[in-house]
Amino acid sequence: MVQICTMIPVAQEVGSLRAMGSGGIVTPTGNPELTPEKEKEFRRDLVLRALQILQKDVHE
Amino acid sequence: MAEKIRVVHYLNQFFAQIGGEEKADIGPGFKEGPTGPGRALQQTLAEHGEVIATLFCGDNYFAEHAEEATEELLRQTARCKPHLLIAGPAFESGRYGVACGALCQAAQARLGIHAVAGMDEENAGAAVYCKNVYIINSGDSVVRMLATLQRMVALGTKLVQGARLGRPAEEGYIPRGIKRNAFAAKPPAERAVDMLLAKIHGEPFQSEIAAPQFQHIKPAAALRDLSSAVIALVTDGGLVTEGNPERMEPGRPTRFTTIPVEGIDRLDPKQFDVVHSGYDTAFANQDPHRLVPLDVMRELEQQGVIGKLHESIHATGGAHAAVENATRIGQSIAKQLKSAGVNGVILTST
Amino acid sequence: MRLEMGLVNIENVRFGSRTVIDDHILFIDRQELISLLVREPLFDSVEIDLAHPGESCRIIRVLDVLEPRYRLNGPNFPGALDGVGLVGAGQTRALKNLCVVEASAEQARGRNIIDMSGPATNYSPFGATHNVVLIPHPAKGADMDEYRLAIKKAGLRAAVYLAAAAKEVIPDETQIYELSPTAFNHGPQDLPRISYIFPIHSQQHPTHQKETVFYGSNIQGFLPTIVHPNEILDGALMFSYSAFTYFAQNHPVIQELYRRHQRDLWFAGVVVTVAPVTIVEKQRNAHLAARLASEVLGADGVIATKIGGGAVDTDLMMIYERCEEMGLKAALIVMERYPDTGITFVPDNVDALVTPGLTRDAITLPPVERVIGGDTLFLDNANPDNTNPGIPPLPANQELTLWVGDIVGAISQVGASRLITYTG
Predict the structure, then answer these.
(1) pTM above 0.90, yes or no
(2) Is the CB of B222 inside 8 Å of chain A's CB atoms?
């Protein structure tokens, strides 16, 4: 599992080691300040990074 | 308190005077009135209570047939219509302690009666049951039988009367790991300044909140082949279908919802809502993809970057979740996903 | 900068033909105050009710609580009520033992209550104050966010109106708050310099465009900055949510640092900051706040408090770690929400935490004769943890089982309470 979130330290504390930064608390996979097209690109980049992290080994 | 407290007393085969280890295989049994240490229990209760019956079971029998033994003992308990179940004290005896804890927990949950167990704090039963059952710390020596029974009666009486309990040290029970408030001698701001000054001066001080200890989780192995992997989307940001028909809780969640997305390539804001008390849900409501990236995932599936997008989104609203509930929800979702052949999960959190 | 807070003790409050303080009794011209408030187009009508300590009375749907204050040379609540200006110097009148309480229709699903008698009064100071309750009803079709902001403004207006009656009254006591500019604010070497890092808002619930939090600003994009502590006490700050403005006006940490200034510590000043919504911004604000305390205020130690939800435990831990890295000692005040773990998150190296109490501690409140602010509460009496949206409303005058945290004033995140916690 990869977690797209804001509170990365909390995530790691409870054992979610594949935690990565998001678009913010209220829009984890979005950014309302961008145009819809740009926002979707932002989301796609985030998701691709998440999928990459899924393919990496992590150690405690 | 006018009415006498009706008490049922649970003992193992030894304290019920059936026999020693050689009788540890006997099944559940019943005696009218107090037996063995039950007499001291009755003395302690005096005119405020009555030991209606003594229930007993062999330690081995309970260990090997826990469910049936509990069923039968509950049945016998219910028959007596007691206010209070007193179990033990079991001191160091592990099988006996576990039986006491299990029976008390079941009696509380299923019969709705109050229960107090007694055993040493190191007893295996204490570790398992102290969270849900009040267990008086008897120590490891039978010498403390009477003192322990007295504490058990005092605590049990308070439970029956609905009186507020004192701290573990005062009442003698093993801390259940549940925090409570108490009135403080000094206000928090003063205590904070005192603590800071002590820290600065190198003087001893004690933090008021201990670091929560979380279970050790082994991370999953890396995904080997993304292009054939089944990926599922999960969120704790409170995605629900329009109108929240399942009445998902905006805070303190106790469950999750499963939203089917087979054949859907975008989340229409008119068909979804976001319910979560811990953040402003307006942006996610406008465009649910800001919470769950279904549109992008569907495209990546069509492009062959991932093998398949799982057929449903699992969602809960994570505001102020109790650790127990969050753990249970997570385990349930993981179990469902695993048995559906999902290889990887993207969890989006607010 | 020197602030003289003239305290006028109020022993009772009644409606009368004109608004005046006579021998410690506040008389309120109800019609005049209503006329003043009902001019707001977002209100259809305004009720004003009085609740006295000891009465069998419950106030529900509480949005904010304020202490009446009047600055003799103005402005009052600049940016939020009066025009742009500054606070924190000069003479201010404060009415003590009396509060303005705002009850809002948009709080219908909320559980903020004040009981004027019974066990709640053991926890909250507002069961012992005479409370002037404002109940503005929204105009038809009013935007609920704007209506909420209008109520908060009405509260300021009422607070100033009432305290103005103390203009000519000689205070019963005068408290002096005086602190020199940072450059000249030095004490003896052996007194530790203590600063307060004060998060005033968490953007997990973003402020409205028109919201007035700090000197009338909506504080969006707010970066850590230094303020004079008097500004917090004297009307520069109105909390958006998560804390009642009374506790800015009577800020427990600021008052404690002032109380001990020049005694066992040197009050080195206040940094205000905000908890943002992305991890990068949280890190940045923590760095900046710690840097201001360390290099500009020259602090040896820092107290920091929390505001907002569980998300902000992270900001506080970051502030702690940055401070300690810079050689400052830190102690935090963090409200506990969870009966099992207390707070969300504590790294092992955080060793100085103070708890103002646990919100989720159940308490049963007795039935009352009178309810102000509405008729019903959405509450599952058998289980205060139940937040199922399908819960039907309960009559608010009956016996209620809810959380200590629902009692207004019982636990303030800025460090006001009568509580400590233990593991039972």
Answers:
(1) no
(2) yes
